[in-house]
Amino acid sequence: MDLKRKRILLTGASGGIGQAMATELASAGAHLFLVGRHHEKLEAVRATLAEPEKHVVFSADLTCEADLERLNHTGNQFNQSGEGIDIVINNAGVNEFNFLASRTIASVQQELNVNLLAPMLVSKMALNWLNRPGIILNIGSAFGSIGYPGYTVYCGAKAGMYRFSEALDRELDGSGIRVLYVAPRATDTDLNSSLVKQMNQELGNRSDSPQVVAKQVIESLKHETTSRWIGWPEKLFVRVNQIFPAIVAQSIRRQQAKIHHFIGLIHPEK
Length: 270
Known about the structure:
This protein is an alpha/beta fold and 270 residues long. It contains ten helices and seven strands. Strands 3-2-1-4-5-6-7 form a seven-stranded parallel sheet, with helices on both faces.
């Protein structure tokens, strides 16, 4: 899809990957509808973009039913005005690096709500007001295809997001709406603590800048690529894990002691 003058709804717009995507999309000529929890941060992002007057900010907590209803109402208003929204990017995400046994029920529910339920509900609403042809692009993770210790809830949510995207794209075949999925590996953002970044360095787990991820998202949108995994050797591990999971399990097992060590440093009271 040509992104010039397309109106794009982007959630998690004030986060690391969100900001990088906003910059790339605005540079490509898109008009952005920036969604996040903090109005001031969204305004700060908007001010840095090409032609800031072309973009709109919308503060909302997507785990709150009232805020979802406000977002749905605004989407309908855009549709009725004749402008409409052409692309929805479900990017908002959270994670907690910890053993499942040490997690609170509330933290598990919150992580599932932000990473899986909210994107599903935004996608459902968008089907009523998204322009056709239109695109829903969901940001996943390599952890959605590779179960990794310390990230059980995050892995489960992102695995669900991958299958949800696949199923909805097939469900909408011929409707004029595509559903795409992009799965970054570890990314250098504030989503990961300094200790997690240190652990990844010591384990040799590579990471990408938010700008690398943003450019890959742009490519997926332009070419309407159904699914894309970012980073080597992670994309190889994804394939191997599908066919020979024991090989990947053995590789991760060699990292187990260090993973446990860093969880202990991050959550010493657990």
